[in-house]
Amino acid sequence: MNMHEWLQTILLFLVLLALIRPLGSFMAKVFQGECTFLSPLFVPCEKVIYRISGVNPEKEMGWKHYAGSVLLFNLVLFVGLFIMLLTQHLLPLNPQKIPAFTWQLALNTAVSFTTNTNWQAYMGEQAASYFTQMVGLAVHNFVSAATGIAIAIAVIRGFVRRKTSLLGNFWVDMTRSTLYILLPISIIGALLLVSQGVIQNFSAYKTVPLIQSTSYDKPKMDDKGNLIKDAADKPVTENVIVKEVTIPMGPVASQEAIKELGTNGGGFFNANSAHPFENPTPLSNMLEILLILLIPGALTYTFGVMVGNTRQGWMLLGVMLVVLVGCFGVLQFAESSGNPLVAKLGVQSINMEGKEVRFGMAGSNLFTVATTGTSCGAVNSMHDSLTPIGGMIPLSLILLGEIIFGGVGSGLYTMLAFAIIAVFVSGLMIGRTPEYLGKKIEVREMWMSILVILTAGVSVLILSGIAMITPQAVASMSNPGAHGLSEVLYALASMANNNGSAFAGLNANVNFYNLFGSLAMTIGRYVPAIAVLAMAGSLAEKKYIPPSLGTLPTDKAPFAIWLTLVILIVGALTFFPALALGPIVEHLTMLGGN
Amino acid sequence: MSKSIQQPKSAFDAKLMKGALIDSLKKLDPRTLWRNPVMLCVEIASLITLVTFVMSLTGANKEPAWFTGSVSIWLWLTVIFSTFAEALAEGRGKARAASLRKSRTDVTAKQVEKPEFGGNFTTVGASQLRKGDLILVEANEMIAGDGDVVAGAALINESAVTGESAPVIRESGGDRSAVTGGTTVISSAIIVRITANPGETFLDRMIGLIEGAKRRKTPNEVALEILLIALTLVFLLVCANISPLSIYSVKVAGHGTPVSLTVLVALFVCLAPTTIAALLPAIGIAGMDRLFQKNVIALSGRAIEAAGDVNVLLLDKTGTITHGNRQAVAFVPVGGQNERELAEAALMASLADETPEGRSVVLLAKDKYGLSRETPKEAKVVEFSADTRLSGINLADNQYRKGASDSTIAFVKKLGCTAIPADLAEVVDRVARAGATPLVVCKDGEIFGVINLKDIVKAGIQERFLQLRSMGIKTVMITGDNPLTAAAIAAEAQVDDFLAQAKPEEKLRLIREYQEQGFMVAMTGDGTNDAPALAQADVAVAMNTGTQPAREAANIIDLDSNPTKLLDIVEVGKQILMTRGNLTTFSISNDIAKYFAIIPAALLSIYPQLGVLNVMGLASPFSAILSAVIFNAIIIPMLVPLALKGTKFRPMPAEKLLVHNLLIYGVGGMIAPFVGIKVIDMVIGMMV
Questions:
Q1: Contact with chain B for residue A572, Cβ under 8 A
Q2: Is B316 noted as a catalytic residue in this protein?
Q3: Which of A549, A559, A561, A574 to mutate to test binding with chain B, by most B CBs within 10 Å of its CB?
Q4: Is the pLDDT of residue B6 over 50?
Q5: Which end of chain A is more exposed for a tag (fewer CB within 10 A), N or C?
Q6: B271 touches chain A (CB under 8 A)
Q7: By percentage, how much of chain B surpasses pLDDT 70?
């Protein structure tokens, strides 16, 4: 890394750390119903919304009611988007006359956006109208993120409250997440992005002349669309000169900010944040990374404030930061070392394939770890083009369960489930019935924590096994072999963990990935969400046990190290064989000179 | 003092080992093994390898028969080692239960109608006795069932139950009236009211507990088991996942063979947390057994584990912190009374008092003043009650009382006396400040003076409390004494807090208060008035010398009646949890090395470049896999002693303890298998 990149990286983390405390305590105030500087503006809005929707904001819910509301709300959103995608050609704001989605793709996309995954088996600029983008996808970006935050807050209340079955009101938490947190920050974010050149319009796609025309050989087709071949059985080609190019337009900035902020990741364009209209400058790049990490990071502080000990929050943030920075280091090292086979040819050996030069090596790698550590899934470089070990980093970050900052809300509650497992084993090791934040960890908490942390991993193991013996799934690979295996693993991991980024190089718009992917996304989102709410319900009913000398402090370094080890060991033990057959073999093959 | 029962028997006594071996084979029955699901999975895995072995022999499986055969043998051994560990832990208890049973067989009892000596009796079998029956037990006879002495006093040999050969006195009235079935009267005769139906006696319950027949999994154990089952399930899927992935890899690599069923099954067993799953039942049983060696009977495993979590310990002062038998050492007259008259009044008030304190007053009066009286025939005995906190006798025209200062004052005031001697308060204060108990003596409405009852704090008790404090346990002394006396003793014994003038309802309230604040409360007690508090406490330790209600309210019974035993109980409770936690960490840490042994070996034919992962330099794929399997199996018997003895408990702050155990069992658990597997591989290399 050069001086420039060091400065960029350090500055990014400093700004992030500086923002975590104010945003975190602001969120705590919002969810505890305290007065904030935005209250005069939004309290009346809230009242109107509750009156129209018939919600009694004072009425709190038990965990079943809360989980039921989450599911009902998400089901309605899903159905709405599904229908919108199927009828897109009939709806307004479609200057390009883009046709409707197929039902498989519509199902996959609707599930994807409802579950905060934003897996895209379609190309944004070719398949989605402006109406779909704004009214469908962008709205989902807000509410799916708000759902995650609401669940996390309910879970925190489970730790905080004593001898009650009530966890808060989902509709209130959801509304407040959107109004007080997501909306203001994404407006600021969008304005900042526009200042960097991100576009925001409803124009039809523009066709402009190229300054320098290019030419390429196009295979000739007969009337039926079959390749015409010559006597030597080679395709007959004709030279085509390209003089003009079509540039897609659209309301990008408004969607870009929430795409990062809500760890959604669904790009307006297929190239996602590598596209100059989504992410034009190094500054906009850093801004987007900041937006990705902002809320998941700040929620750890909110957690600390609400449980009455901010050190508890800093401890979780510390674990996340250590793993994130560690992964960044490995990725940076792997990419800087590049490919020895390329180096042999006398070419500069750092691996810039698939990266934008305007972001540079560090700017691309930082984005990569941020987007996969969180469940964002936006990309500014092609992960498929990373070196084998480099590619293993984003894959591993996803496979860890999206807890290294993680999705908005979901990252925190999944991390808390890991903390409970870590507390359980370490509690036994010091000879006490394990307790976390003054709550005893018993049979019910173990069941639920295990469901939270293992559901996605189990889906990946089962689905990748099925994929490798399903011809359609195998045929989708563009690079058969160990790399192809990584592509499939990545795609399934990305969907099951609700990340949504793609390794690329895999044609995912086939029934296998559309349908199994929808299933994996649904299970990966709702099973942990319901389990964690059930856990919160049982925690809230417990009494509080004050800490004593014999209590293991969970806000200090030894526990943080133990938690980190638990996370890494669980991940490594679950996926070592699969990784050995994918990236590790590929890396060893590369070193072996093949 | 605590001699153990039918001890000592080494865990590895040859006879026990043989019995355990037979039991371990019986436990292979899946109907028994399903209680340990992880090991049931291993058994199924062993069956599968048995099939692949047979297929190797017939040629249907291309793997060499020595390989599939060895894997199968070692997988079976893994299961057997696990059942053996459990059987061994149970074996020790069974041997003891058998000897206890002997003391129960064919006892006859002399049933009587009224609690009077000299009447007629009918001889009945012990099994016919029901609650409420009265029996006469004379010298050299065995007591037929649990009960309370209602008449007489006797020396009793309780060694059959407690292992303590020194006989104890049991007598009617007071807190030492309970007798246990199976114990023998050495001298004199008593009449006992039976308090338990056959099959429900203390001895019956004890036998059941020791045998492990009634052992239920504790909540902690269940939670850990859930974690282990979940891990097992994940590893099952990991191994299942390798199969299609390797099939695909073979297709694209163009050479090699997909990973075979034998190897997948071997990998699964190695990865599954077999070490902890195998030893889990043994840890709990052995913990109970260790307590039993210390002469403590836990009526449930839950109680022992709860003891490990205790943060407040309520200790009865008498007998726990002090030697208990308070002795009268002086009579201090007040209000210008004569010392001799005081002694006489004190003697009268204590004549019917059969407590050691009462007797010490009689003794002092005799020794110092040569006084001696018989209880007059017409005397009406006023027994001590927790409400009046007074005792004494009523004669035809005089009422003698002794008791705590405020209760005696209340008594004389009720009789119309208003002239409380001016120096009484000062004398009471002085005696109490010195840590002694002042008992105020009155005859009718006149206060004569104070008996100085000296209470001696046990030697070395301060260190034990210090140890408790370092473990984060707060000690609270409970006493019926006045606040001044209590404070003096509390200061001397260095307890954290005390509750003076404790009545049963106050003890109960104190426990509830602590529980409300989230504390786990342990309490020791022996008296009937302790019973409600014992029932409320999370961990209730009753002394075996205690009354029947106290013993019934408790969940742990200390046969030695030595209240500082709670420290040992806490220690065993913590040891059980620690051993489980440490072995879980060890078991999972082991997996890293096993991956490095098996994965390169299993995939080498497809991707030779994966050979670099063979960091241990194992000789061949077959020996690598076999070494991992063998290591996984023999680590179980190697850790059996640790499981039975428990991890050593060190009183140190939680954080330090965690780091310490993580270094040994976490880091050690990562390194040990690398060494172990390499050594086994070398041995296999020499043999093949």
A1: yes
A2: yes
A3: A549
A4: no
A5: C
A6: yes
A7: 92
Burial class (CB in 10 A: 0-12, 13-18, 19+), A37: exposed
Specify the pLDDT at position B236: 96
Tell me whether residues B247 and A469 touch, CB distance under 8 A. Answer: yes
Please indicate, yes or no, if residue A470 is contained in any of the structural domains: no
Q: Is B446 exposed, middle or buried (0-12, 13-18, 19+ CB in 10 A)?
A: middle
Task: Give the DSSP per-residue string, A47-85.
Answer: HHHHHHHT--TT---BHHHHHHHHHHHHHHHHHHHHHHH
**Does residue A49 sit in the same domain as residue A114?**
yes
Q: Which residue of A has its CA nearest to B311?
A: A548
For B470, the closest chain A residue by CA position comes to: A549
The verdict on residue A499 lying in a domain is: no
Range of the domain at A45: 20-204+250-280
> pTM value?
0.84
Q: Do A589 and B249 touch (CB under 8 A)?
A: no
Task: Say how far apart CA B103 and CA B83 lie, in whole Å.
Answer: 30
Q: What is the average per-residue pLDDT within B71-91?
A: 92
Q: Which pLDDT score is estimated for A340?
A: 83
Residues of chain A in contact with residue B309, where contact means CB-CB under 8 angstroms, are: 432-433
Q: Judge: A559–B658 Cβ closer than 8 Å, yes or no.
A: yes
In this structure, are A108 and A235 located in the same domain?
Answer: no
Residue with tokens 């009224």: B114
Q: Cβ atoms within 10 A of the Cβ of A326, count?
A: 15
Q: Which of B237, B473, B581 has its CB closest to that of A425? A: B581
The residues in A 520-549 lying below 8 A from B, measured between CB atoms, are 543-546, 548-549
* Closest A-chain CA to B589: A569
User: What is the count of residue pairs from A and B with beta carbons less than 8 Å apart?
Assistant: 207
Burial B377-405 (b: 16+ CB within 10 A, else e): eebeebebeeebbbbbbeeeeebbbbbbb
| Top-confidence residue, B342 or B472 | B342
Q: State yes or no: cis peptide before B8, omega within 30 of 0.
A: yes
Domains held by chain A: number: 2
DSSP letters spanning B166-204: S-EEEESSTT--EE-TT-EEEES-EEEEE-S-TTSSHHH
Half-sphere exposure of A268 (CA within 13 A, CB side): 30
Both A126 and A235 in one domain: the answer is: no
Same structural domain, A139 and A254: yes
CA dihedral A157, A161, A166, A170 (to 10 degrees): -10
ipTM for the predicted complex? 0.92
CA dihedral A339, A344, A346, A352 (to 10 degrees): -10
Interface test with A, best of B468, B520, B614, B655 (most A CBs within 10 A): B655
Report yes or no: B37 at the A interface, CB cutoff 8 Å.
no
User: Which member of B219, B610, B654 has the closest CB to residue A580?
Assistant: B610
Within this chain, do residues A179 and A154 fall inside the same structural domain, yes or no?
Answer: yes
Catalytic one among B316, B481, B560, B591?
B316
> From residue A419, how far is each of A423, A437, B65, B276, B670 by CA, in Å?
6, 11, 46, 21, 21
- The answer to whether A101 faces chain B, any CB pair under 8 Å, is no
Q: Are residues A151 and A273 in the same domain?
A: yes
CB A196 within 8 A of CB A287: yes
Q: Read off the pLDDT of each residue in B121-134 and give the average, rounded to a whole number.
A: 83
A94 within domain boundaries: yes
Nearest CA in chain A to B612: A588
For residues B621 and B627, the answer to whether their CB atoms sit within 8 Å is: no
Give the model's confidence band at B7: pLDDT under 50 very low, under 70 low, under 90 confident, else very high: very low
Q: Do A173 and A117 belong together in one domain?
A: yes
Res. B446: pLDDT tops 50: yes
For residue B322, give the nearest of B120, B548, B525, B489 by alpha carbon: B489
Residue A148 lies in a domain: yes
Contact: A465, B243; criterion CB under 8 Å: yes
